[in-house]
Structures are given as structure tokens and as C-alpha cells.
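[agent] plan:
  1. take the single chain provided in the ticket
  2. run structure prediction with default settings
  3. attach C-alpha cells to the ticket
  4. add a short note for the reviewer (M.T.)
[agent] executing step 1
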Amino acid sequence: MNALASSIVLVCRKRAEDARSVTRREFINALHREIRPALKKLQSANIAPVDLAQSAIGPGIGVFSRYRSVLEADGKPMSVRAALQIINQELDAFYNEQEGELDRESRFCVELFNQSAFNTIKFGDADILARAKNTSVQALADRGVLQAAKGQVRLLTREEIPEKVRSTEECVWLLTQQLARAMEVGGVKECAQIVMNLFGSNAENAKALAYRLYTICERKNWAAEGYAYNNLVVAWPDIQSMAANLAAATPVQVSMEDVFSSTEQ
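[agent] step 2 finished; step 3 output follows
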């Protein structure tokens, strides 16, 4: 019941007869160009966070095996092990780029989570980190994402943050935690009720952050915490589908002012 089922598909093509050898730098440049669109495609296909690192091997090795050989600085051919290490580094860089697109409060929260999860750190250390992210500990406390008291600071857990989600909420960290909590408590339907009211790309940004947080949890061996983010991403297609159905079934309220305005036109 608890076993993971994996399907691995190998697509084998003959390498071109005129395939050339390239340097390590040329390989990294090609990988950098090609793996990002592939990773975005994997995320949009809703590959579970637990499987994304393994899935990234495909497009990465696709680049590596295109060449007759990849030559290291000493002229020796690069090993597959070394290529896999570079592919993993590109995956990290991809996540870092996505993190850079977050709002400043969320970037602070991700860094603090990476350092100490939901445990306390000294106020001075948190203040330095907040200033580096162009925000402040007090502003984050006011937003309801952390607690600052007696010289100690810690992120609030999902059970402690405000349950009510504003449709205009811009703090992606807060949205992600609220969605993960809704998934734990009420499942797909409760998440869908949140997503249907969100404006712009906030929902997709929350999903992307769930991928990033899972990766952090996996490397820190925080299995229980990572499970919450993995579940959220795996259920995302069902959440979106139900959110669309709920939105379609929700009556649109029209004010009398809008009616008169439409009549006049």
C-alpha cells in the first residue's frame, strides 16, 4: 500500500555520425539553455516534487549524450557521474531563479525556513536577513507569518497562521502555507475554494513555491513537512478543475448601478 510505483522510459536514438566533442564549458552552456524550458514543462505537467529531480535527468542526459564526448580541462572524457552532478546543479539554479521571482517577504521566509524550519533564531540574525531581503521583522510579524518575542524569532506554522485568505494576497509564502493547510484539513475542495478567488498568477506561484519547499525538506530530511508540499502539487490538477467548476456555479452579483450603466450604453 505504501510502495512507490515508478515507470522509467528510455528513449534510445542513434547519435549523429558527425557528432562532435565539446568542452565542459560548452556542455554547461547548452545544458543551461535547454534544461530550463524542460523543467518548466515538467512542472506544468504536474510531475510530483518527489519525482522532479529524477525526471530532470532525462533532458539533462539528452544534452550530454548528444555529443561524441564532453572533455574535461585535462582532456579526459567527462563521466556520467560528473554529468549528473552538473545536472543537479542546474536544477538548483532553476529553483533559485524561481525563488528570485517571489515577493521580498516570501524570499525572507524561504531563507529562514531553509536555515531553521519553524524553530527560533536570535532576533539579530533574523533582522540581518530581513534587511538583506529589503523587509523588516516587524512588517513580517504584522503580516502574520512570524512571531517575534523576547529576542527570538520564528516562522509561524500552518496551524498558527491566519486561515482567511485574501483574494489579493501578494505574499506567496502565506498563500502556499494556507493552501497546504487546507489540503491537510479539507482536501481538494477546500483548496479549490481558495484558488477560485485568487487573482492573477498567485495560485501558480504558490504551486511553484511548493516545489521549492519540498526540495529543501528532502535535503534536510524533513519528511513529514515535505509530504505536505508534495501532496499539494500532486492534487493540483484536481484543485484547478474543482475551482473552475465552483467558479462556474457561483452566481455573479451585479449592482443596480452596473445594470443602469449597461442600459444607458
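[agent] step 4 note for reviewer: Residues 21-100 form one domain.
[agent] ticket updated
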